[in-house]
Task: inverse folding
């Protein structure tokens, strides 16, 4: 019995020793097994890292090689050309009226500016030539025939020489010369204001002409919607767009006319100041010359 216990204890000790030896061996084998997948994954990572720059470098190359596709430009089917082609008689007539207004306005603006520049230059000639002459006649002859200052000077000179008629004899010479010069000044002012009434008319009526075209275009749009029985965008966009173009044309014609009118009126005011100053000085010179001549005749 005692021997059996001793054998059992010896056998248990041997098994325990064998188990202790087996556990370190398995622990040593485990790192080796774990290192093997790591070693195998390392080349794969290297391969992927090497493949990534290659893919990135290939992408720009493909982008450079890819052909550039041109952007397709779609023509506007509802522009001014379509308005003229598809518009009816009323729409075309409205466009023609606005075009005539615009051309007339620009013609008047340009021509009146030329006349004003010429007149201001002639005012400078009056100071340098007329007032330095020996007499009214020689000073008048030194001015250009188209000069308004020469016209005023000739009118004043003739008024001192011709004072005939039973009724006209009742007017004193001072009043007669004043009236003659004043009439000449008024004619010059009327000539400067030629065309300004047209600009004022265009500036005040062109927006309403364009608005009439807008109303007519919207009326056509509503008619097309009623005929078609549906208010789709393709049925509404064309006529309404054409109607709004009419309003834009009306403003395009009216704004330059109003600005040109105000600018020309201001410049006419400056030009007429030169004319009135010249007429006042001429009136004084003419009367002084007539008075001195009359006194000389009486003394003789």
Result:
């Amino acid at each position: 019995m005692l021997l059996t216990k001793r054998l059992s204890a010896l056998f248990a000790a041997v098994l325990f020793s064998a188990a202790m030896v087996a556990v370190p061996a398995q622990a040593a084998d485990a790192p080796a097994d774990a290192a093997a997948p790591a070693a195998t994954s390392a080349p794969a990572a290297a391969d992927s890292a090497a493949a990534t720059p290659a893919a990135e470098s290939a992408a720009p190359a493909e982008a450079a090689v890819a052909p550039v596709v041109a952007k397709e430009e779609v023509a506007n089917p509802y522009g001014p050309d379509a308005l003229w082609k598809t518009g009816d008689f009323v729409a075309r007539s409205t466009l023609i009226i606005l075009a005539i207004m615009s051309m007339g306005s620009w013609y008047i603006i340009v021509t009146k500016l030329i006349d004003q520049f010429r007149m201001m230059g002639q005012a400078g000639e009056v100071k340098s030539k007329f007032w330095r002459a020996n007499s009214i006649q020689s000073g008048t002859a030194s001015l250009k025939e188209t000069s308004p200052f020469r016209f005023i000077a000739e009118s004043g000179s003739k008024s001192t020489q011709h004072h005939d008629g039973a009724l006209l004899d009742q007017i004193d010479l001072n009043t007669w010369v004043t009236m003659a010069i004043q009439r000449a000044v008024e004619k010059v002012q009327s000539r400067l204001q030629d065309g300004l009434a047209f600009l004022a008319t265009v500036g005040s009526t062109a927006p309403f002409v364009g608005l009439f075209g807008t109303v007519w275009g919207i009326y056509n749009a509503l008619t097309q919607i009623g005929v078609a029985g549906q208010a789709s965008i393709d049925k509404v966009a064309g006529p309404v767009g054409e109607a709004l173009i009419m309003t834009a044309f009306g403003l395009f014609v009216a704004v330059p006319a109003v600005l040109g009118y105000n600018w020309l009126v201001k410049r006419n005011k400056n030009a007429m100041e030169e004319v009135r100053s010249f007429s006042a000085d001429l009136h004084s010179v003419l009367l002084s010359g007539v008075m001195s001549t009359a006194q000389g005749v009486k003394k003789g």
Notes: The mean pLDDT is 73. The helical segments are 2-65, 80-86, 89-128, 136-141, 148-161, 173-192, 196-228, 233-299.
